[in-house]
Amino acid sequence: HMTVWDNIIYGPKVKGYPLEEAEDLARETIEMIKISAKIDSYPDELSGGTQQKTAVARALMSRSSLLLLDEPLGALDLKVRTVLRYEIRRIVKDLGLTALHVTHDQEEAMSISDRVVVMRKGRIVEAGRPLELYMRPKRLFTANFVGEANFLTGDISKVAENGSIIDLGDNMKLASIDKSRRTGERVVIAFRPEFVSIGREMGKNALPGRIINTIYSGNLLRLTIELPGGNEITVKKTIRSGETFPRLGEKVMVNIPPENVLVYPYPEGGLHRELSLE
Question: What is the reported pTM?
Answer without folding.
Answer: 0.83
